[in-house]
């Protein structure tokens, strides 16, 4: 029940295309990509801080 097949994915994509239209999809993907990029950078910057705190204890 938790797995998506090709048919389900195509139906979801068709619904998204109908809701947002063809012109909005690239803008949404660009925003999503930049958000993921910022999240990865923040996670990367946080790791050395956590290691330093462990060394102090």
Automatic annotation (TrEMBL):
One cellular-component annotation, GO: TAT protein transport complex
Keywords, in A-Z order: Cell membrane, Membrane, Protein transport, Translocation, Transmembrane, Transmembrane helix, Transport
GO biological process, one term: protein transport by the Tat complex
Transmembrane segments: 6-22
Main location: membrane
Entry membrane topology: Single-pass membrane protein
InterPro entries: TatA/B/E, TatA/E
GO MF annotation terms: protein transmembrane transporter activity
Pfam families: TatA_B_E
Compartment(s) where it occurs, according to its Swiss-Prot or TrEMBL record: Cell membrane
Function: Part of the twin-arginine translocation (Tat) system that transports large folded proteins containing a characteristic twin-arginine motif in their signal peptide across membranes. TatA could form the protein-conducting channel of the Tat system.
Similarity field: Belongs to the TatA/E family.
Oligomer status and interactors: Forms a complex with TatC.
PANTHER family, sorted: SEC-INDEPENDENT PROTEIN TRANSLOCASE PROTEIN TATA
Name of the protein described by the UniProt record: Sec-independent protein translocase protein TatA
Lineage: Bacteria, Pseudomonadati, Bacteroidota, Flavobacteriia, Flavobacteriales
């Amino acid at each position: 029940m938790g797995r998506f097949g090709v048919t389900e994915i195509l139906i979801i994509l068709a619904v998204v295309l109908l809701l947002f239209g063809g012109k909005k999809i690239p803008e949404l993907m660009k925003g999503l990509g930049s958000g993921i990029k910022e999240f990865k950078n923040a996670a990367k910057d946080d790791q050395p801080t956590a290691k330093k705190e462990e060394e102090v204890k």
